[in-house]
Design goal:
- This protein is mostly beta strands.
- It has five helices and 24 strands.
- The protein has a domain of 81 residues.
- Helices cover 8% and strands 18% of the residues.
- It starts with 5 loop residues before the first helix and ends in a 7-residue tail after the last strand.
- The structure holds 2-acetamido-2-deoxy-beta-D-glucopyranose (8 copies).
- One 2-acetamido-2-deoxy-beta-D-glucopyranose binds next to loops.
- InterPro entries: Cys-rich_flank_reg_C (IPR000483), Leu-rich_rpt (IPR001611), Leu-rich_rpt_typical-subtyp (IPR003591), LRR_dom_sf (IPR032675), LRRNT (IPR000372).
- Pfam families: LRR_8.
């Protein structure tokens, strides 16, 4: 008869085996091992053979011996984070036919043997970020036919062998950001026919060969920011019809060939911030009809031609801040009806055309801060029904009758959190006063003795030196402008004839007030210095609701 403790003994033996299934210094979760022990100076010899993923975190492994993982041949992912690896031996990852994802990040790895990744024909992602790699052998990636993503960010690479990427026909993503690359050869990237994302940010590239990107017909994102590029050779982007995002900010580009962006019919995002552009060639954006976000801030632009944005109908965010723009040509924004955010802060703008924003019915944010503006034309925001965020601070506002429209507009529409630091610069008795806090009555213009018109027509004051501007005249108040107390309705009449009637029913108003419904009638009493009038408005919808 068998002792009855035998089954219990078997159980105990099994239980005793279980801890051994997980190597000392590691934690095991199903097929995943996380090893993070300061005592682990070698890859454990007792790796469970069914392990599929192993991650070493901050373990002092100085080297990996050949065939170190061969007992766990099902591993598909091997990661070393901050492990102090100084070298990888030729057969370190031998015997891992299922390996798909290999990462060594944050190790003082200075170089790699040419055979480091040999036989890893199933590898799809290779990450070698933030090591100290200076040179790579030309044959390093041989046989990596399946590789889709290669990360070499944050190393010390100064140049790359011309044929190093030859085997990587399946690569979709190549990240070479934050290295010391001073140049790339014309042949380097040509084999990467499947590439979709190329990151060359924060290197030391001063020039690019004209054909650097030829053959990359599937490229969708190109990062060239943070280099030392002074100019871009003509034809650089030829054949990149699929490109959607182009990052060129923080270089030293002083000049762009007129046709440089013409091949980029699918470009939606372009960042040219922080370069040295003094001018934009006339047709620069003529053939980029998909452009939706464009930044030109932090350049040296002093003027922009009126048709610069004539062929970018989808533009929705435009940043022109921190240039030297002294003025903006009328009509500049007429053809960008989808513009929602417009940044013009930090320029030298002294005046704006009254119709500059007339086509921008979707404008939500407009920054005019830190310019030289003293006033804005009456009616300038009349078509900008969605505008809530208007930045005005840092301008030398002249708080007189010319600012009445702006004050009125701020009261009615502006977000209260904006313009808390918008002050009057003149007249002297209002200097330093918070503009949005003024009372309408404080905004007065001096009346010249004997001139009654000067009060009603500040713009057309009888000063022979004032320049006659027919457009300004047309917008100036008529001899009698009647308006309702809330500004919703205004009527302008000459002595006998009324010339225009404005009823402003912005979406905001219908949200806030009772609005006007179909088949309704409403009365307003309008006041002016000439007296008062009554306006009755009826809306009749024919049967069926129209
Ligand atoms: C290996 O597989 C066994 C059973 O199949 C399981 O109990 C064990 O937890 C696994 N070990 C690892 C490290 O995945
Ligand atoms: C593989 O397993 C065998 C038997 O358990 C062991 O002797 C050998 O050291 C292991 N090899 C490695 C590289 O861990
Ligand atoms: C590659 O595979 C061959 C054949 O299996 C083998 O002889 C060789 O040692 C392997 N090389 C490396 C670096 O793993
Ligand atoms: C541009 O984008 C459209 C729509 O996404 C796509 O059908 C077309 O193939 C793209 N053009 C190129 C050259 O990739
Ligand atoms: C503005 O551009 C024109 C040509 O488009 C140029 O002649 C002129 O010098 C520029 N003005 C300034 C102030 O840069
Ligand atoms: C703004 O204009 C003034 C006067 O014309 C000039 O001295 C200054 O350099 C300009 N600033 C910029 C940023 O262009
Ligand atoms: C812009 O506005 C002007 C005047 O209202 C109009 O003639 C023109 O067609 C508009 N352009 C676009 C693209 O909407
Ligand atoms: C407006 O009145 C007409 C006839 O007076 C009627 O047929 C129509 O349905 C009304 N519409 C609404 C929206 O009330």
């Amino acid at each position: 008869m068998l002792p009855d403790y035998l089954p219990r003994l078997a159980l105990l033996l099994l239980a005793a085996r279980l801890p051994q299934a997980c190597p000392v210094g590691c934690n095991c979760f199903k097929g995943e091992l996380v090893c993070s022990s300061e005592d682990l100076v070698d890859v454990p010899r007792d790796l469970p053979e069914n392990a599929t993923e192993i991650i070493f975190v901050e373990t002092p492994l100085a080297a990996i011996q050949p065939w170190a993982f061969a007992n766990a041949s099902r591993l598909s992912k091997v990661v070393f984070l901050d492990c102090g690896l100084r070298s990888l031996q030729a057969e370190a990852f031998a015997g891992l036919p299922a390996l798909e994802d290999l990462e060594v990040t944050g190790s003082p790895l200075g170089g790699l043997p040419g055979e480091a990744f040999r036989n890893l024909s199933g590898l799809r992602k290779l990450t070698l970020n933030f090591n100290l790699l200076q040179v790579l052998p030309e044959e390093l990636f041989q046989g990596l036919d399946a590789l889709e993503a290669l990360h070499l960010q944050g190393n010390r690479l100064q140049r790359l062998p011309a044929a190093i990427f030859q085997p990587l026909g399946a690569l979709c993503l190549l990240n070479l950001a934050q290295n010391l690359l001073g140049q790339i050869s014309e042949r380097l990237l040509a084999p990467l026919a499947g590439l979709q994302t190329l990151k060359l940010s924060d290197n030391a590239l001063a020039t690019l060969p004209p054909r650097a990107f030829w053959g990359l017909g599937g490229l969708r994102e190109l990062f060239l920011d943070g280099n030392a590029l002074v100019e871009l050779p003509e034809g650089l982007f030829s054949g990149l019809g699929a490109l959607e995002q182009l990052w060129l900010q923080h270089n030293a580009i002083g000049h762009l060939p007129e046709a440089i962006f013409s091949p980029l019919a699918n470009l939606t995002f372009l960042n040219l911030q922080g370069n040295r552009l003094r001018a934009l060639p006339g047709g620069l954006f003529r053939q980029t009809p998909s452009l939706a976000r464009l930044s030109l801030s932090g350049n040296r632009l002093e003027n922009i031609s009126g048709d610069a944005f004539a062929n970018t109908p989808k533009l929705s965010v435009l940043t022109l801040s921190h240039n030297g723009l002294a003025g903006l040509p009328p009509g500049l924004f007429d053809r960008v009806p989808r513009l929602a955010k417009l940044y013009l802060a930090g320029n030298n703008l002294t005046a704006l055309d009254g119709w500059l924003f007339r086509n921008l019915s979707e404008l939500e944010l407009l920054s005019l801060a830190n310019n030289q503006l003293t006033a804005l034309p009456t009616g300038i925001f009349d078509e900008n029904f969605r505008l809530f965020h208007l930045g005005l601070q840092g301008n030398p506002w002249r708080c007189d009758c010319h600012l009445a429209y702006l004050l009125d507009w701020l009261r009615e529409y502006s977000d209260h959190h904006f313009n808390l630091q918008t002050y009057c610069a003149s007249p002297q008795y209002l200097a330093g006063q918070l503009l949005p806090a003024l009372e309408a009555e404080q905004l007065v213009c001096p009346v010249s003795p004997g001139s009654h018109r000067a009060r009603a027509f500040p713009e057309a004051a009888e000063d022979p030196s004032s320049i006659w501007d027919p457009e300004e005249e047309a917008r100036a108040p008529a001899p009698c402008t009647y308006s309702s107390a809330d500004g919703t309705v205004a009527l302008a009449c000459d002595r006998e004839v009324c010339r225009w009637l404005r009823v402003r029913l912005s979406p905001r108003e219908t949200l806030a007030g009772p609005g006007l419904t179909l088949n309704s009638t409403r009365d307003w009493v309008l006041e002016s210095s000439c007296g008062s009038v009554r306006v009755t408005l009826s809306i009749n919808a024919p049967g069926g609701g129209g």
